Amino acid sequence: MPTDGTNDAEVMPPKPIPSSFASLGVNRWLVDSLTAMAIRKPTPIQAACIGPILEGRDCIGGSRTGSGKTVAFAAPILQKWAEDPFGIFALILTPTRELALQMAEQFHALGSPQNIKLCLLIGGADMRTQAISLAQRPHVVIATPGRLADHIRSSGEDTICGLRRTRFVVLDEADRLLTDSFAEDLSECLDVVPSAEQGRQTLLFTATMTDEIRFLKDKPPVKGMKPVYICEIDTDQISIPPTLAQTYLFIPITVREAYLHTLLSTPRNENKSAIIFTNRTYTANLLTQTLKLLGHRVTALHSDLPQRERIDSLGRFRAQAARLLIATDVASRGLDIPVVELVINYDVPRDPDDYIHRVGRTARAGKKGESVTIITEHDVLLIQAIEERAGKKMEKYEDDEGVSLEGRVVRETLQVVSEKKREAIMNIEEGRNEKGKKRRRGKALDTSVSRKR
Known about the structure:
The protein is 41% helix and 15% strand. It is an alpha/beta fold. It has two domains: 10-233, Rossmann fold (3-Layer(aba) Sandwich), CATH 3.40.50.300; 244-452, Rossmann fold, CATH 3.40.50.300. The strands form two sheets. Strands 1-8-2-7-6-3-5-4 form an eight-stranded parallel beta sheet, with helices on both faces. Helix 12 (281-293) crosses helix 17. The relative contact order is 0.12. This is DEAD-domain-containing protein.
């Protein structure tokens, strides 16, 4: 990312937070849109970044999950667009479909008074319909890199030519987009937009400062360009919410399902909304079906589900029609889920940063929350790495008075959970979903393949 020819990238400490968006130079119509969304006072990342972006500077913004990073770049982009509303003004790239959908909702809510036109390019939707939308020169394109790269390769110059005049490019959750898994698609996407020397403004936002982002910060300056504005808030020390109680359960791997069911059924937890994280889609599917058979209100979110089911599942959980969301790490970052009281790591994440993002789904905005990590004999080294990264040790989960998890598992739940798990496995092998309905054969085969990964 280019910086000034004589000065290194400018790293600014956050200033005192202004009391209003108007004091940051945000136009009245945008202030009204923000107020309609119950956003009245800037958060630290918004207060730090909106002004420099309006000044035309590239920006790297780092701040914890839930701190309002989307508005920090959406507001100035929409203000600049409203001054000159031509063609494809901004391209927003984000790693997952759910984040793209959520971002599209926020851009629509903010920009609707000015008749903003959006184009959403994500997997699981019809390519032809998307290509038609892209060819009609929407004002903002929100995409996952893989699907945009598909269009660049296959949809033709008439479809993608509008991207060649884009004024803004945003990498949301930049720490994930700058990994090897996105490298090829991301490179293809950036090849079709203008360069910085041609006037493109580049914005990177992240909750975690990785080596790749630090490399961009430290790149030699390019002559003639405004200095990059860099603001880091709560990123140097990985931010475990201060109101989060981190606990663990150390149990044999063979009885995890029984302990999970029992934990969720205690008086302390039976009414809490919870996200249960797994490392594999097969495990998420198996837990969803098993817990459903055990009478829990549960839904799932993982990459094996069709896009329509993913949207419906997230909607059900947000509306509290489902109390439990069984998810892979597709749900660990960025998603706006208002009330999560409990996070359970059914599988210990392999990467300590993934743990931080998972447990950050609860204890948001100063509210209390709890995480429970289920540890088996194979996880000890992973837990040590997580505790070192987080700077805090987990506490042993303590039973409430008169409630013994181990006693309940042995006396009451182990046999019934084992029976329901066997039934769930049979359903999966027969290609049935958690409602007992048969999936199309292709989907059943996909799930069985996932189990082997």
